[in-house]
Structures are given as structure tokens and as C-alpha cells.
Design brief:
Radius of gyration: 19 Å
Oligomer: single chain
Number of domains: 1
GO biological process, one term: amino acid transport
Family: Belongs to the binding-protein-dependent transport system permease family. LivHM subfamily.
Distance between the termini: 43 Å
Low-confidence stretches: 292-296
Mean pLDDT: 88
Helix content: over 70%
Protein name: LIV-I protein H
Structural class: mainly alpha
Subcellular location: Cell membrane
Main location: membrane
Number of helices: 12
Shape: globular
Amino acid sequence: MSDIFRDLFPLLWSGMITGCLYALGALGLVMIFKSSRVVNFSHGNVAGFAAFLIYGFSSGALMQLSWGAAVLLAILAVIAIACLTYAVIAPLVFESDLTATIATLGIGLIAQGATLLIFGADIVSLDLPVPRFGMSVLGLFITGYDLTVLAVAVITIAILFFVVDFTKLGVAFRAISVNPFAAEVCGLNLRSVHLFSWIVAAVLGVVGALLIVPTTFLSVTTVASFMLQAFAAAVIGGFASLPGALVGGILIGVLMNLFTFYVSPEFSSTFLLGVILLALNIFPNGILARVGGSRV
């Protein structure tokens, strides 16, 4: 029993750290769904393409830039991709949510194909310039990577919630999330708010990809696989709730960590699917919607 508790707290800590990354991915999915009712299945492949761009810009494969310049250039690239993507599917968004959602599958395949065409199918390494140290605190071994992920996630999420809660653009986003027809009648431009959410989601995807890739290698499927967990986080938290995405991300991170360690890493994908199905049956609108009502 003592061995179980000895392992439990480090697993909870590392699960929470990984869960912060899932939350970043889930927030991107929720931003787009709340504004335009589209489930963006291209989120992972576009974020993966951005991670490869950073590798290409910083490793000499495409350019030889500093890491910071490579990240900035990649973010500008995904913003351009987000604008182009929305320009393509905008007519579909106003016709059918389902058609627009299916269209994102095609865009994801295009992004994956572009990654393979430019960078090939090789697995590469993309490092994150973070302080490399470790320390033991109350039985937990905390690394510089853990603190970096936590700090970046907290700052990014705080900025996002500030924009949504306290700016005119955020007010417009919340109004369109509740009633797009009434918002349009009041003079709000739906396309501008949709585009805002697509751009924010793209940037969140890049941040999440940057932080998750150093824990593994970068391949054409790495970030897309990571986004499956983000999708599960959005399902648990509710696609209509930004706080729910945050809670869902941390829950998925912890649950996946515990299952992988105590049960079996081979069945982690099966477990994830089971969690999604269970959540859809028990909390179809997300856990926060059941507890306190959906928050705008």
C-alpha cells in the first residue's frame, strides 16, 4: 500500500503537467466550436505542421534562424493558414455545421500531406530551450520542463480568459456563442469573430505542440495523436465551455497517467475511447454544464 501512495503523487503531478497541454489543445477546439459550431479535425495536423516549420526554420532544413525567430515565423505561418482555412470553409459554416466539420478533415489531410512533402516521413528531434534542472519537493521530483509547461500554460490561459471576459472582441465572441442570429441583428460581424477564434485556436495549437514535442520525437503523427487527448478533454469538459476544457484537460492527463502506469500502456487508446463514450453518456454537455450550468 505504501508503494502505491509513493508512486501516486508523482503520477498525479506529471498527469497534471501533461493535462495542461491537453487543455491548451482543447481550448482551441472549444474556441472554434463555440463561435462557429464546427469541430475542427484539422487542429492536430496544422499544429504538427507548425512544429515541423519550427524544426525546419531552426535546424537549417529550411533556414538557419534562432529558436525565437523560428517560433515567431511559424506562428505567422499558422495564422495565415487559419485565415486561409476559414476563407475556404466560411461559406460552408453558414450552410451546414456538419459539412464544415467534414471539410476540416480534408484540410487536416492536406496539412499532413504538406508536412510529408516538405519534411518527409523521418522522425526528428525538436528541443525546447528550457532551464535544465531538477529538485525534490515533498517527495515530488520537479524539473525545469515541468515548471516551464506550468508557467506557459497558466499565462496563456490567463491571457485567453482576460481577452474573452474583458475586451470588446471577447464580448462579441460570447454574444455569438450564445445567439449568433441576435448578435448579427445587433450589428456584430460573425465572420470577424469566427476568424478571431480560428486564429486563437491555431496559436494555442502551436503552443501545445511546442511543449509536448520535447517529451517525445516529432513525426507527422505526433501532434495529431496528442490532439486526440485534447479532443477527449473537450468532450469531458463540454465543447461549449472554456473552463470545462481546462478541467477536462487536467482530468484526462491524470487519468491517462494512472491507467498507463497501473494497468497497461498498450490499452491507453482503448481506455481513452472508453472515457469519451462514458463522458458522452453521463455528461453529454460536459461536467461543468451538469454541475453549474454552461458558462459562456
